[in-house]
């Protein structure tokens, strides 16, 4: 500690180390938050259901998505990324997931929402297995922190079914 | 800075930074504001810089006692002995 430069270096290094500890503690505190998200998805209408020229099935849906994700936001949350995926089982694969819609929620105030929209991304199948298919709609979310670990979870809603014939 | 001053600087620096960190986390967590935590910590670092980096007079309270010049003359500096050059002759 005999010179100005020596002291400045020591202070800077120790300050950055303590900063790393602070960020780790902030991230660790996210484990203690009580999260109670809720959601509901309704299929209002199946707009069309066709077999594409390449042989794959495609569906267009109008969805009514209601969600209450305010409890996911902590003091260490930067944004929440939410997306809706359709999941079904086919003879080829045990689990197929197709993402239909997603959104970035930047603040707690925007986390309670109601939206009526047709699917943002195409609901395609690998093959033509979708006629009469039972599927789940799952709302996934990723809570992106300001520092530290990202948490991801989902709510599965089952009981949806595609029509037996193309329209 | 003298030796006691350097020891004091090191201790002060560590304690002040740790305390700023702890206070920052506690206040930030209770006010649910990440921004507050960062601001408090930054303030703490600036405060610590102002206290520890400049050479304040209170760090020089125990100055080193150098030898008096008259004392030094009584004990002259030892002379460096030059080793004698050896002549190698072929036998």
Description of the structure:
The complex is a heterodimer of chains A (167) and B (91). Chain A has 167 residues and is mainly beta. Chain A has two domains: 1-32; 33-161, Immunoglobulin-like (Sandwich). Chain A is 15% helix and 48% strand. Chain A contains one helix and eight strands. Chain A has one helix spanning 4-28; strands at 38-51, 57-68, 77-88, 96-105, 112-118, 123-124, 134-145, 151-161. In chain A, strands 1, 2, 5 and 6 form a four-stranded antiparallel beta sheet that branches. Chain B is mainly α and 91 residues long. Chain B has one domain (1-64). Chain B is built from three helices and no strands. Chain B has helices at residues 3-31, 34-52, 69-74. In chain B, helix 1 runs antiparallel to helix 2. The longest helix of chain B is centred in the first third of the chain and has 29 residues, at 3-31. The model of chain B has no long low-confidence stretch (mean pLDDT 86). Chain A: Belongs to the SPCS3 family. Chain A: It is a single-pass type II membrane protein. Chain A: One of its GO terms (biological process) is signal peptide processing. Chain A: It is found in: Endoplasmic reticulum membrane. Chain A: This is Signal peptidase complex subunit 3.
